[in-house]
């Protein structure tokens, strides 16, 4: 790869790292902001749902504008919109306006990652793409952890913290605008294939929705819950950072092991651990949180910290395993469509989960968060057990190779079937695309 191209991709990855840092930090900051201003858990959950709804719209409608105005202009416009949205949090407490701001931030964030991911995919050659995508995935994971370290050093006045967020977006604009070479053309287009994916792999289809719902609810609403029971911003950031750290520690090893066995067994293991932990956390965080505060006072943060790492290692790693499982059962011609469909169902779950919490919190109180997440994961675990007992595992020749998968945009890493299976399937006629 030419030296100039490497320098350009380095600039893109630095800009995306800044975006991931500020995106993960903002999720916690927004929850803390609503807690500080006296909003209810329903509002905090609704804000998370609005962000995910905006992200969903951005994922599947950003390609047109990006192709019209180009990568650098599109990235700069989306980052500027995100910076302006962050500043609005420092100017008003009017809830309807802030909910709209979160939705527009989601749209803009999807555009940012669509630009960056596509730029990396199209600019890297076959001989270097896997290595670059692995580096990219690791960098995004590290930025997620680092984002919570940022929370520890933000000013006590959260309005000033949103000014810092806007500055990071501006930094990303400067880096991407200073890239030394022109970006490639956008070639990809989102294609969602709902019925086909559900028919081929109902476990992966359902699991992506469930994981999206639970993961977003926990990462976006738990900081609010922790703040309301009396934890400081520093302690909250440590516990949320532990979730992201769990993904970094377990993702590679779980993915590698799942290549060697029935992948559903590994997914069932992670789902079972997540179910048990969510059940335990349902008790710890119930009521006014006095039980959790008593544990923290008597034993310190280590028990909760360990539980958070294990929960992150089971819950946040599951989407990548589910994508691989879905593609195990996908005809090669539909691999790209099914990968995109998995992202679609995951993002719909990201919208639905916080909405469920927002509505049910009005009836069941703040404890609804824990019991909803536990119930969803328990139901998915039961489905996995049923499928494992009634459906044979995928043949080894059908399994895809392990790849790094991020949940940022429709520009997912290209995944190929094993050569012998792909060759046989490529000659099969009569496959009809039931694309939705």
TrEMBL record:
<feature type="domain" description="Major facilitator superfamily (MFS) profile">
    <location>
        <begin position="1"/>
        <end position="396"/>
    </location>
</feature>
<dbReference type="Pfam" id="PF07690">
    <property type="entry name" value="MFS_1"/>
</dbReference>
<feature type="transmembrane region" description="Helical">
    <location>
        <begin position="333"/>
        <end position="356"/>
    </location>
</feature>
<feature type="transmembrane region" description="Helical">
    <location>
        <begin position="227"/>
        <end position="245"/>
    </location>
</feature>
<dbReference type="GO" id="GO:0022857">
    <property type="term" value="F:transmembrane transporter activity"/>
</dbReference>
<feature type="transmembrane region" description="Helical">
    <location>
        <begin position="299"/>
        <end position="321"/>
    </location>
</feature>
<keyword id="KW-0472">Membrane</keyword>
<feature type="transmembrane region" description="Helical">
    <location>
        <begin position="265"/>
        <end position="287"/>
    </location>
</feature>
<feature type="transmembrane region" description="Helical">
    <location>
        <begin position="368"/>
        <end position="386"/>
    </location>
</feature>
<feature type="transmembrane region" description="Helical">
    <location>
        <begin position="161"/>
        <end position="181"/>
    </location>
</feature>
<protein>
    <submittedName>
        <fullName>Putative MFS family arabinose efflux permease</fullName>
    </submittedName>
</protein>
<keyword id="KW-1133">Transmembrane helix</keyword>
<dbReference type="InterPro" id="IPR011701">
    <property type="entry name" value="MFS"/>
</dbReference>
<feature type="transmembrane region" description="Helical">
    <location>
        <begin position="97"/>
        <end position="120"/>
    </location>
</feature>
<keyword id="KW-0813">Transport</keyword>
<feature type="transmembrane region" description="Helical">
    <location>
        <begin position="70"/>
        <end position="91"/>
    </location>
</feature>
<dbReference type="InterPro" id="IPR036259">
    <property type="entry name" value="MFS_trans_sf"/>
</dbReference>
<dbReference type="InterPro" id="IPR047200">
    <property type="entry name" value="MFS_YcaD-like"/>
</dbReference>
<dbReference type="GO" id="GO:0005886">
    <property type="term" value="C:plasma membrane"/>
</dbReference>
<feature type="transmembrane region" description="Helical">
    <location>
        <begin position="132"/>
        <end position="155"/>
    </location>
</feature>
<keyword id="KW-1003">Cell membrane</keyword>
<feature type="transmembrane region" description="Helical">
    <location>
        <begin position="41"/>
        <end position="63"/>
    </location>
</feature>
<feature type="region of interest" description="Disordered">
    <location>
        <begin position="404"/>
        <end position="436"/>
    </location>
</feature>
<dbReference type="InterPro" id="IPR020846">
    <property type="entry name" value="MFS_dom"/>
</dbReference>
<feature type="transmembrane region" description="Helical">
    <location>
        <begin position="12"/>
        <end position="35"/>
    </location>
</feature>
<keyword id="KW-0812">Transmembrane</keyword>
């Amino acid at each position: 790869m030419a030296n100039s191209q490497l320098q350009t991709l380095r600039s893109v990855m630095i800009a995306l790292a800044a975006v991931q840092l500020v995106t993960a930090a903002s999720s916690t900051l927004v929850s803390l902001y609503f807690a500080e201003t006296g909003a209810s858990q329903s509002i905090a959950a609704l804000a998370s749902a609005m962000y995910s709804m905006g992200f969903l719209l951005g994922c599947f409608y950003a390609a047109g504008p990006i192709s019209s105005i180009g990568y650098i202009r599109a990235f700069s416009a989306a980052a500027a919109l995100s910076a302006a949205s962050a500043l609005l949090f420092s100017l008003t407490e009017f809830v309807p306006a802030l909910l709209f701001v979160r939705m527009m931030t989601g749209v803009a964030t999807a555009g940012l990652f669509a630009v960056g991911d596509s730029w990396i995919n199209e600019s890297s050659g076959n001989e270097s793409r896997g290595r670059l995508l692995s580096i990219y995935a690791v960098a995004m994971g590290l930025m997620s952890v680092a984002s919570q370290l940022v929370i520890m050093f933000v000013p006590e006045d959260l309005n000033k913290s949103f000014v810092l967020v806007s500055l990071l977006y501006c930094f990303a604009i400067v880096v991407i605008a200073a890239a030394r070479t022109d970006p490639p053309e956008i070639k990809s287009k989102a294609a969602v294939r709902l019925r086909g994916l559900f028919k081929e792999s109902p476990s992966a289809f359902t699991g992506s929705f469930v994981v999206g719902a639970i993961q977003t609810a926990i990462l976006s609403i738990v900081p609010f819950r922790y703040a309301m029971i009396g934890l400081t911003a520093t302690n909250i950031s440590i516990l949320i950072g532990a979730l992201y750290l769990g993904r970094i520690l377990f993702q590679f090893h779980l993915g590698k092991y799942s290549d060697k066995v029935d992948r559903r067994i590994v997914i069932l293991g992670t789902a079972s651990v997540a179910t048990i932990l969510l059940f335990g956390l349902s008790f710890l965080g119930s009521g006014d949180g006095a039980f959790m505060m008593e544990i923290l006072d008597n034993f310190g943060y280590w028990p909760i910290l360990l539980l958070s790492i294990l929960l992150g290692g089971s819950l946040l790693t599951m989407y990548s395993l589910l994508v691989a499982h879905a593609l195990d059962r996908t005809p090669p011609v539909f691999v790209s469509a099914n990968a995109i469909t998995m992202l679609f169902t995951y993002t719909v779950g990201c919208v639905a989960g916080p909405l469920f919490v927002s509505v049910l919190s009005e009836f069941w109180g703040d404890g609804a968060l824990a019991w909803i997440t536990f119930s969803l994961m328990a139901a998915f675990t039961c489905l996995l057990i049923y499928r494992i007992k009634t459906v044979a595992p995928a043949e080894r020749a059908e399994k895809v190779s392990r790849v790094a998968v991020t949940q940022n945009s429709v520009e997912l890493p290209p995944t190929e079937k094993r050569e012998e299976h792909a060759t046989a399937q490529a000659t099969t006629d009569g496959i009809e695309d039931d694309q939705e």
